[in-house]
Amino acid sequence: MRTSNIIVQEEQKQNFFVSLYNQLKSLIKCECFKSLITLSYNQKPIQIPKQSLQHMGRKTLVIDLDETLVHSSFNYISDPDFILKIKVMNANYTIYVRIRPGVEEFLMKMAEFYEIFIFTASICEYANPVIDRIDSKEVCALRLFRPNCSILNGVFVKDLQKLQRSINNIIIIDNTHTSFSLQPKNAIHIKNYFDDPSDTELLDLIPFLQLISTFDDVRPVGEYWKQYVRSEKIKYTRNGEQYIYDRNRNESYEEMDAINQSINQIKDNQTLLGKQQLKLQTNFAIDYDEVNNLTENDEDIQFRNEQGINSPNLNKSHFNEIDQNDQNL
Question: Least CB-packed of 143, 276, 296, 308 within 10 Å?
């Protein structure tokens, strides 16, 4: 075997072991980080404050962080929006973060209509600096972390009952079904975000969330969202009154108005049909007064009518009589 081939093989072995070492190192790091997160669950849950005067009367929009607003990776990626370096229990971590398209616009717009909570199952040492970057205007009213989660069948879930808000006024947006398994009617499931620059999930939600912020009860928000996407009419209650939203017309109207409009339309159709029938009958009716008041100029017409000359069923014997008279002459 040539010396050059031996050198190449040795280099390949070294590269393989270096790559394997880096992968194991990354995996161990992730597992250590997960264990730290699990340990941090024993922290004392924070108290949920009462709704501020600024948000008084508004509904609460609860938004997940990872794969909903951002995607984070312990492995190197070439085009992160920012790189986060954190230290947890004397261990250093480098995290590469991509921001979902439309996050800033989404948060700013939703802050006009909702009290916003960001609720993540991660620890605050990681989540806080990420939220600081994506919420530079500080429109988020409250940040919730793993200590605020509940455990159900070994899985962390986000119990909306703990938020001390009326459950009919809470919406949660999350990419994981288990996160909202306790209150599925309050949830909008959003697809995972990893790196798609053309993603419009958040921007697509803006007009719908603006609409539903006026509902007396947001539930079942997931079904309302599906109806909205399919451009179906949405029935809801606002200030105790029944309304229907028509996306094709981009407007809401009272349900009784819609019923009355349907009734009036039926009545109008019946009236129009009656007029058409009356007109049809009038066109085929005989005006006997007009027949009785024939002028002298119309006497010849009357005579032909009496003799059946103008009739399409003219009696053939009539012509036979005329022909016989002509021959006699």
Answer: 296
